Amino acid sequence: MNHIAETINELFDGGLPIKLTAYDGSVAGNKDSPFAMEILNPRGLAFLLTAPGDLGLARAYVSGDMALNGIHPGDPYPLLDLVLDKTDFKRPSPRETVELVRALGVTNFVPPKPPPQEHLPAWRQRAENVRNISGRALSALPWTRHSPERDADAIHHHYDVSNTFYEYVLGPSMTYTCALYPTEESTLEEAQAAKYDLICRKLGLEPGMRLLDIGCGWGGMVRHAAQHYGVKALGVTLSREQANWAQRAIKADGLDDVAEVRYSDYRDVVEGDFDAVSSIGLTEHIGVANYPAYFGKISSKLRDGGRLLNHCITRPDNISKANAGAFIDRYVFPDGELIGSGTIVSAIENTGLEVQHHENIRVHYAKTLAAWNDNLRDNWDACVNEVGLGTAKVWGIYMAGSRIGFERNNIQLHHVLATKTVDGLSGYPLRHTF
């Protein structure tokens, strides 16, 4: 009896708005849709049943046990725009659960091994280290959440995929943060340059100043500030691949005497008395509980009257859970946490810094992600050759899904500008100059 697609479709609240097909020949959902999910084999079915929702769908798709038809894998936006927020299973009653197991077979409820692209979840990392480090208390382990060792591993998981892959996806700027589009027609490269320039102006950079850029990536901010604003810039990153790439770019630009990117945790920077600190896309990796220490460390690195620009993905409120969701945590940003901008502003102010300006550039990130998906699609074969089909698929769905999140105001991007104000003196002008 052909029934898998019909049975699975009934588990989605309201049914799927696209076609669903299965390896037993069954069809369900919106049969007139140009887009379809196709469960190709029993392992794909088991992924869906043992991790209901986005995580199970991602596992089945990344492993090749489920196909997304009607879209390019480099840009599955049209399909995801229809199904996102509609992929959670209804919670069946005990009786319905028994009937479901009877209908689909108990073997399909045994979790398959996740695809190799999946990062170990937090509880498994802790458990494995407890087993491997005999006699040490859990709280003393080096792999507790947001320890330097575990942060380095999380950064390695996402950012050390392949510099060549990132060159294909990000384009010549090698900038993996939200761009700022001066016009609707601006190119990605123009928008990334505009973002860096805005941050330089917000920080009030002038020739001879010293800038610390923490979580600097491939050094885009460091190079822009040194080249166009005449500052001496130091960037730090936990990705060795990023640091190596950035140092080569600095040398090629002839900026060796004024710019440096260092493979280092920001907590290990010994220099101080900087005129400005930029944090562009790092706060998401810090952990909300660590905000006091994080902004306290930044404050300690600033001279009196120095400025901080914090650029961070946020939630649209300050009451939602900080975790980024199962798929993002397992496949994209392990240990990533997002919270509302109000929480970030409060943390900065509680450190003693004075907030001078705060803005949301959410819509710009949707445009940035669309451009990255375009690059992935246009360079698909080269990207697959570089990192493998599974990883390339992860990037396609992650970027398209994130684009939808920004479009729907499920996530935002905030700039918070602050000064190290001492005895009432901030050095800030009467009005903003950017």
UniProtKB/TrEMBL annotation:
Residues 165-426 form the Polyketide synthase-like methyltransferase domain. InterPro entries: CFA/CMAS, CMAS, MeTfrase_dom, SAM-dependent_MTases_sf. The keyword Transferase applies. Its EC number is 2.1.1.79. The keyword S-adenosyl-L-methionine applies. One of its GO terms (molecular function) is cyclopropane-fatty-acyl-phospholipid synthase activity. Keywords: Lipid metabolism, Methyltransferase, S-adenosyl-L-methionine, Transferase. It comes from the Bacteria. It is an enzyme of class 2 (transferase). GO terms for biological process: lipid biosynthetic process; methylation. Belongs to the CFA/CMAS family. This is Cyclopropane-fatty-acyl-phospholipid synthase.
